[in-house]
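hiii, so i know i said id send this last week but things got crazy w the move. better late than never?? heres the sequnce for the chain we talked about at the cafe, plus the structure i predicted for it. fair warning i was half asleep when i ran it
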Amino acid sequence: MKQLILSVCFLFSISVGFAGDNDWGQTGHRATAEIAQSYLSKDAKKEIAKLLNGKSLAFVSTFGDEIKSDSEYRKYGPWHYVNLPENATKYIVDDANPDGDLLMGIRKCVEVLKDKSSSKEEKEFYLKMLVHFIGDLHQPLHTGRGEDKGGNDIQVRWFGDGSNLHRVWDSEMIDSYDMSYTEMARNTKVLSKAQTKSIASGTFEDWMYESKKLSERVYASAEVGEKLSYRYMYDWFPVVGEQLQKGGIRLAQVLNEIFD
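okay and structure toks below
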C-alpha cells in the first residue's frame, strides 16, 4: 500500500517537536483499547472484527509504536504528537507541520475508514493507527512543548533511576503500579450514562486542548533533577487512570460513528 505522505522535516511551527519513543507504553495503550471495546456498538464490533481478522483492539493498539523501527513507516513519526505554542487557543492548519501531526493523523485515519473506496488493507492499517493515536492524544505530554520534546528533555529521577518527565508519564508510573492492561481497564471509575456521554462529547480539537491544559499541570509537577517516587504516584496516578478511561470512551465513540 502506497502511503502518500511527505518525508519528515522540522519546522518551528504549531506541530514541531518530538513526543518520545513510547506513548503510554504497551500497558497503557492496551488498557485504553480494552476500555473502548466495552463501549462499542454491535455493528462496530462486527466491522472491526472483519478488518482485524478477529484480533482485538488491545492487540493492535501498540501497532503504531511497533512499526517505528521500519524505515518504511518513519514518515508517520510526527503523527504521534502535536506541539502547540504556549497559550494557543486555536489550531491553525496553515501553521501546522506539513508532515502531519497527531490531530491531522487522527483525521486522516477517520477519512480513510469512512471512504467506501478505501481497500480493506488501507482500512486495516488506518484502524490500527487510529486506535493508537487516540491513546496518544490522552497522554498529556503528546500535546506538550516542542522546545523540550514533550518533556523528554526534562531529566528527573524515578525511584532513584535516571529518567525524564515524558517517560514517567508514558510508562514508568503505569509499570510501577504493576497491573496488567485488563486489570487497569477493569479498575476504572464507575460512571453514570450522563458522565460517559459528557466525556464522549466534543471534537478531536476539544480533546487536544483538554490534554494540552493538563500538560501545563504536568510540567509544573516536577523540577529538573527532582527525585520522584511514591508521593508523585499518589498525586498523579489517578490522573493517568482518568486519561486512559477518557481515551477508551472516546475511541469507542469515534469507532461507533464510523461503523454504525
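btw Residues 25-259 form a domain with the P1 Nuclease fold (CATH 1.10.575.10). thought thatd interest u
miss u guys!!
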